[in-house]
Design a protein that fits this description.
The chain is of the alpha+beta class and 92 residues long. The protein has a domain of 61 residues. Helices cover 18% and strands 35% of the residues. The protein is built from one helix and four strands. The strands form two sheets. The protein has a two-stranded antiparallel sheet. Strands 3-4 form a two-stranded antiparallel ribbon. The longest helix has 17 residues. The radius of gyration is 16 Å and the shape is globular. The chain starts with 13 loop residues before the first helix and ends in an 18-residue tail after the last strand.
């Protein structure tokens, strides 16, 4: 069962998205991230090793094709073992 803890959607320019992803990368590297909006806030303590997923897909309808790039990472709370990860993708 999934329990949604925090969600944010919207539109950003390419430059804004790059800055956002850099901030996420910095926080992941530091091991702590706080998500906040208004009175809502969520603290994430990020372990040294975590699993990740990088997914690119096209959603095709009759009138348009929408390309989606999804980047996700995960870990089991309280667990310290290394997750199963495929590390053969290269981004250039």
């Amino acid at each position: 069962m999934d329990k949604r803890l925090f969600i944010d959607k919207g539109t950003k320019t390419r430059q804004e998205m790059a800055a956002f992803l850099r901030t996420v990368a910095d926080r992941v590297e530091s091991g702590a991230m706080t998500l906040s909006r208004g009175d809502e806030s969520l603290q994430l303590d990020i372990p040294q090793e975590l699993g990740f997923r990088f997914n690119v897909k096209d959603d095709i309808s009759r009138t348009k094709t929408q390309r989606k790039v999804q980047i996700g990472f995960r870990w089991v709370l309280g667990e310290t073992k290394k997750p199963d990860v495929l590390n053969d993708m290269v981004i250039s």
